[in-house]
Structure formats: C-alpha cells, structure tokens
Amino acid sequence: MKVKQLFRGLGCTLLALTGSFLSVPTVSAMDEVKTPPSGAIMRGKGPSGISYCDPARGTNIDGGYCQILWKDLQTGRFSLKKYNSKPNSQQKNAYLESKFNFTLIEQALAAAKTLNSSRPANVDKFKVLLRIRAGVDAPQWVKSKSGTIDWYFKSFADSQKYQLPVFWNKAYQDSYLSLMRGLAIKYDDNELIGMVAASMCMTTHAEIMWNRTGRKKDADGNEIRNGDGKNPRQVNIATMTDSSVLGSDVYTNPKDYACLEKQVDIHNNTWKRTPSIFGSHLYQKYYLTEKAANDAADNEGKSRGKIDAGDATTVLGKTRDIFNYCRDELGDRCVLGNNSLRDDEVATGNNIYDVLLEMGPPLYFQTNVFGSVDDGKDPKDAFSYEDMLGAMTLAGNWGAFMVEMAMGWDCDNEYDKTGCNKADTHSEASNFATPRSVLKQNSTTE
Q: Which residues form the signal peptide (predicted)?
C-alpha cells in the first residue's frame, strides 16, 4: 500500500498508544492521521545559522520547510501539567504562547493559505513541514539543564567550535519532549502542517544517526590536526567520555541508541495525526578510546592510525532495529529516508538505500546540494539541476512519495543562487512534471 491509503483511517488505532507519561491529550477514534504532502518539497535551509521558512511558491510545488533553530522557537520549558491546569482555552493558549515564538511558522502558514486560495479545488494544497534544529542550536535554558561540552565540527577554528548539549541525557531529552508537546498542541490538528522531522539526537545536522564526533578531514581530503596532533573526532570523543567533566553522563554507544528509541517514543506520544520524518544513515558505533580504535585496526588488518578514537563502524543490525522500532511504534506515521540522494546512487550491498528499500514505504529523500566543477568540485561530487531531476526520478522509482529539492532549484544559476524567480517556470516544465508525477502516484496507488 502507498502513502495516502496508509495514512487514512489510522486514527482509530491510536488510543492504545497514549498510555505513556509522554502523552498529550488523546485524539478521538474519528480523527485521521494526516495525508502528508507528496511530490516536490522545498527543503527550507536558509543561510547558515538562521531560522528560515521557505515561502510558498511555484505552480506545482507541494510544500516547503520551516527549518528553525530551537533557540529561536522555544523561550522556556513548556509544562503539560501547567497547561492542563488552566481553566479555559484562552488561558491555555496564553501559557503556550508564553513559552514559544511561533511567528515564522504562522507567517509560513499564512503564505501557504494565500497560495492555496489561488489553486483549483482539485489540486493538492501546499503544506508546511517543520524541521527544528536541535543539538548545538538548542536554547541556553536547555543547555543549562543538560550541561554542555566544547565540540568541534569541521576544524578547530573558533567558527567551528560549538557548545553541544549532552543530548544523550535525561535533562536534554525531557526538554525536547516539552518542545514536541507544545508544537503538537499548537499544530497537530492544523491540516496545513504536513510533517515534522525528528531531530532530538543530533549535533549540527538534523540527521539522527551520524556525525556524533565531527569531521577529521577538510573538503580537500586533508587531515585536520591541532597542536597536539589530534583531529576533531579524537578531541570530541575524549571530551564526550570524560567523567571528570560529565560524571555519570559520559557518552556511550548504548546511551546513543537509547536516545534514538526515546526520540521515537516522544514523537509517537505527541504527534497523533502528523507523520514524523526520520532522516537517517546507517547506525554508527563509535570507538570511544584509542585502544578500541587500535584493536579495530588490528582486527581489520589495517595499520594503527588508520582508525582513530571517534571514528565509527556501521552496524546493520542496529539500523534495522531502530527502523523497525519506529515502524512498530508509529506505524505509517514513521517516514524513513535519507538526506543526500544523488542521481547515480545504487541500492546495493546493505548501504543505506538498500536498507531503506528493504523497509519499504512510506519513504522520502532529500537530494544532494548543488555543486559545480567550476567551483572546485571533483567531477564525481558535482551536482546540477538536471542531476536533481534525475535524483527525483530515482526516488520515485524506489517508491518514495516525496523529495526535498536542493536550494537554488528555482534559480537561473543553481550554483551561485542568482535569478531565483523561476518557481512557476521550472515547476511547470515537462522535465520537472514527469518525476513529480511518479512521486505523487506513489502516494495514491497500490
């Protein structure tokens, strides 16, 4: 079955899922799980470091993301107990509004409503999707509760040094629960909110099963080293596992996996009608010490130094376990996918695409970002507008119902983002319509 059938009529099954302490007020048996937007979606990624909602536009564009920094959205902890204690809806709403700044989301919804008013009744409505950037972009009140560590991403430059909250501990996860509770109370019954991305267990990107320890090489493939000869992964994992700093809150692989399960639980028990997106890679098990890294190198017949503390190995069994857990708990509200699809990918050898196709629909993909050889990209890493259309076609052939397009899709020059007023022209073109139609067909046909 494809997405639209899968999402219809599931409301009657949800009451059995609301017994957890995580729950928001239950939906009735008559309520239906929303049908998510299918087709071509704008990914919502604005300039680095800011909150941004893609304005509704394009004749044949089906939705766009609000990608919002958590610190810009939630001003304080939202208590469901306090909310429920308020005597009337006006006071409930006042309390909710005192903990959140919904301005960007409301503006995006208003723009979607305006665009939809001009669309024929038989045309699917433009919907808004939510992706809240947690991790390093958590509010200070969250970081004060969870504790933080110094964490380096792509280098040791000041611009790449972040305060990472201890996302594997209870204080952080309870704070994320308060975020999802508030958002769900506000938007779970809003038909123009199409989906929400799961982002609790992240560092800098809302992809929840990778990048725990940063990068060890720069864009040119050169090793990044500090004055002590260490790369960011080695430095980060040493800090993450330092009991003199974190006490019992040190990072472990089981705690990381438990975070992923808790994330599923939170979305299951808050978003009753709105599907959740889980953007994933293969599960990573990290080497927490140099000894563990050396042992791994010895076992693989590699020279020591080829594997460092902070590096990781993929664990297929754990990948399947968390995917199955998501589907078992959320059913078809669990939308699985990956955020780096190219047009030349092959689903083979138990890679992430192979595993996702094994899981089956509902699936989504986000394409790779645009990049040109003229800007120094290796030819194998270059990605053009035509390549994006190829990736959309591939996603449709794999059974996905939705693709998030690269920023610049509506520009004259996708590489330098100039002349970006071609939303109608590009989305009406036949080379765009064909892959979009396959994606939309995947949402409506057996």
A: 1-29
The residue with tokens 């119902």 is: 401
Give the start-end residues of each E strand in 124-238: 127-133, 148-152, 161-165, 193-197
The predicted model scores a pTM of: 0.92
Exposed / middle / buried, residue 266 (Cβ in 10 Å: 0-12, 13-18, 19+): buried
CA atoms 251, 253, 257, 258: torsion sign: negative
Per residue in 321-354, pLDDT (tens digit) is 999 999 999 999 999 999 999 999 999 999 999 9
Q: Residue 288, Cβ neighbours under 10 Å: how many?
A: 19
CB atoms inside a 10 Å sphere around CB 13: 11
Domain boundaries, the chain: 3-442
Distance CA 139, CA 13 (A): 35
Check if CATH label 2.30.30 holds for domain 3-442: no
Convert the pLDDT of each residue in 239-258 to its tens digit: 999 999 999 999 999 999 99
Which of 60, 119, 58 is closest to 433 using CA atoms? 60
- Give 268's contacts (C-beta < 8 A, 6+ positions apart): 17, 22, 329, 330, 333
How many CB atoms lie under 10 A from the CB of residue 153?
Answer: 21
Q: How far is residue 176's CA from residue 23's CA, in Å, rounded to a whole number?
A: 13
Helices 316-330 and 352-359, packing angle to 10 deg: 30
Q: How many CB atoms lie within 10 A of CB 161?
A: 15
d(C-alpha 188, C-alpha 190), whole Å: 6
Between β-strands 312-314 and 402-405, what pairing exists: parallel, antiparallel or unpaired? unpaired
